[in-house]
Amino acid sequence: IRDCLRGRLDSQSGRLILGGLREYVNKLVNADRILIVACGTSWHAGLVAEYFFEEFCRIPVEVEYASEFRYRNPVIREGDVVIAISQSGETADTLAAIELAKSKGAIIFGVCNVVGSSIARATHAGAYTHAGPEIGVASTKAFTAQLTVLNMIALIVAQKKGTITEQKLHELLTEMENIPEKVEKALKLNDQIQEIAATFKDARNFIYLGRGYNFPVALEGALKLKEISYIHAEGYPAAEMKHGPIALIDEEMPVVFIATRDSSYEKVVSNIQEVKARKGRVISVVTEGDQQIPKMSEFVIEVPAVHEALMPMVSVIPLQLLSYHIAVMRGCNVDQPRNLAKSVTV
Ligand code: F1P
Question: ipTM of the predicted structure?
């Protein structure tokens, strides 16, 4: 990562991950706007990237479902750069969105897992995630890999634009280097999460709530549960709860809060109070050592402390495990969920 950031895109790691950017990186640096198009889990990775690019690169970002973008008449101006994200590299909606944006003169970057895939070939430049094949249909490790690559691209752009201080860059890089260890620690939560899954395996609905960088994680947690266990689940920004979903909360509703220590912590505390006042069953993902939220929760999952902008790579792990165990307990085939295809090519 450090090699890449020092502009050594020719180094071994630089070539592997970001070599494809070399000629086009300045298009991103000078972009007036970044449009991200993707579907499903990849779209959630795009939402995290929106927060990250806007915070550190100060470039406006819009994230769109490729399946909507392709069927409308989007405004694309000179100076816009499109980033298409896809695990399989074959998703028909994403491919069509790329072709549409290209026909309007946009420069397209791809973030794909599969080398030589249709999306990789259709883009002007891009970066491979090299996460290996997803064994199951539902995307999991691809999400973490997409975030890693998108963060790396954003940090390179931020450094070139001068929108990040050396100190902040150093802090984020050090955190990035520690992510694998923290993800491994999060994976060790497996047994504890299995017990939580046993309590909620017969639930008919779930709500997932998070704010800031953890909002897309709430969406992803809900999507994973829907995809592999067929339980209805909704993900919302925690502050949106009062604008509707709060009506769903009663003593039977499990509400998963992604409530790690960050700048919106106090606000999340009030959201938890609102759920508790309606007797919702609170399951919280918190930062190790947190004192306040565990006291308010029926179940607590502790993840290692991470800079808030990088937390999604860690906070998503317990949610993936929760979906996995609930699905297994319900007798669902987690690798081949009904109605889902590995790559949605129609
Ligand atoms: C997008 C996606 C996945 C989802 C499922 C269906 O695929 O929606 O996120 O888990 O497999 O396809 P991709 O464009 O990232 O390959």
Answer: 0.94
